[in-house]
Hints:
- About 0% of the residues lie in helices and about 35% in strands.
- By secondary structure, the chain is an all-beta fold.
- The model has no long low-confidence stretch (mean pLDDT about 75).
Amino acid sequence: MAKNNPIWDNARKWAVKDRKQVYNPVIDRWIKMWDDWKFMSQKDDWTPYKWVHKLNKEADFE
């Protein structure tokens, strides 16, 4: 029977604060980066990362 995990199981409950993701239409991928705009990784399956803030407006880049 399934049960809820305990509070101390280190499960993520909300978005990661020091990361962002942006969609790159040239390569058709989502790219994950740190707050200082250093790239971390990119996804292979063309879906956005879970729990990571999306930057898809021009106002977010200023």
